[in-house]
UniProtKB/TrEMBL annotation:
Protein name from the UniProt record: Uncharacterized protein
Biased composition (Basic and acidic residues): 7-27
The organism of origin for this protein: viral metagenome
Transmembrane segments: none
Stretches for region Disordered: 1-30
Amino acid sequence: MHIYVRHGHDQKSHRAKFDDRLSDEGKKKARRRARKLIKKYGVPSVIYCSPMYRTRQTAKEFLKVIKKQQVDGAPPPEIVIEPRLGRLFTTKQRRHYEKHTNRAVRKSTENIVLDQGKLAFRQRVEAQVHSLPRDSVTWNVTHSLVILHAARMHNIERAPHVKYLDTLIINQ
């Protein structure tokens, strides 16, 4: 089973317009979502996440909850940065990101795929979905358009807007 989760609510402040940190409320809600996912689906074997800052922060909040709830001595799941889970940038957004993002931020997010059209984006998402291990539970922290395309791939009807921390469940 593969669970796709949109990142938590960000605060639109210190970093590039398209890569803000989570708000305090976003962190709190991410921990709440993690508790619900664990209760319903169990602990994931791995957490994949987009290289964007807000998705990495969401994954870290999930991991905090998992570590607190694990009592069997099993190691917590690894967080794996997965560039194929990254968002789609328009040409204007790419220019803005490159112009307004400082070098340190770019270095920490160097796996972000910036220069890509819609077809290549869809192919990237499809490759990620098909690469997931069978017979394991994975959490995939990502963005709205990735979730919408993964849903289309599996003929799952979704509203056109994916709210923060909404999920898509894919049984394989």
